[in-house]
Structures are given as C-alpha cells and as structure tokens.
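Record minuted for everyone:
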Amino acid sequence: PEYNFVAVSSTDTWSKIFFFSVSRDYFDGDNLGDPLSELDADMVSLVDTGATVPRYMTIGENGNEILVTTGSNHVVRVCVPNSNCRGDRNSIMMYGGSSPRGIALLESRNSYVVADRSLDKVFECPLSETEVYIYDCQVFAYQPTGASWDPYGITVDSKKQIVYVTDFSYNFVHVFAYDG
C-alpha cells in the first residue's frame, strides 16, 4: 500500500516526529494558507527506543516505516502511525559513530547508507539486523582522492543505482555507483 504523509522532525522537542497526512483537507476552503501545527499531526516519540533528537529521515523497507538518524548517534526504525506496521519494528538499527546525518535506502541491496560527518565516511548497514555497531557496517564511501570531504546529505536514484552525497563544507555533490 501507498502511504501519503510528510514526516517532520521537531527542533523544539527532544524525541518527536510528526506525521502530516497529505490526503487530509488542510488546504481547502477556509483553511487555505493556515499553518499546520502539531495538533494536525500524528506524533511518534523515540523515547521508547532510547534515541533522541531526530535529524534526517528516509522511507524504510516496507513503505510503512521510516529510518531516522539522531543526535544521539543512532539510526532508528519508526512505524508510520495508523499503518499496518508491527509495533516491534520501532527499534534502534545502528548505534555508534560520531555524527550521523544523511540516510537513504538501498532497497535492491536490502540495506541503507548513512553519512557520518565526524568519521568522514558513508556506511552501508543491513536492514535485516538491529543494534548494529557502525564499525560492523561496511564502508560504502570515503574521501575521494584529491577532494575535500564532509559527507552530509544522501539521496539515491534506485533505477540508475547511483548514490549522491552532498558535501556540507566544500559545496560538492559526490556521485557513487551502488558498488561504491
């Protein structure tokens, strides 16, 4: 099934993600232009996982979950509210590292990639395991020869099997094939 939502991490709370439905009638009639608030959203807390400060997100392997990097140096899997996701799927997927930022799903490889700024690497971790230490994940990409490197954001073109990694400090976009 397809889920129509926008997930937003909150900067003024320590552990909340808000899910706004794009199928609701927020923008019809008298509501046109009114800002959305957390009262318009379904909320998920990361407290039960032990992770805090949600940062970057991507759709998870089933479409009814998201993967989230956190300021507490975790990757957390979170169920989309009101979906058929099993509650036990809310779990820490990866821990360790120093500053995980961007994250993206590599569906055909049954894995995800996560950029860690402080470690200057992009790691590939399996979706099939939980509580994986970052150094047990495979290094997917590291500083290209002759280039400055501060890996931050990640997006994927799954059809072309290309991973794009933005560079925070040096204004580059590095391009990698799925094989690194």
Q: What stands out?
A: The first strand starts at residue 5 and ends at 9. The CA atoms of residues 146 and 174 lie 12 Å apart.
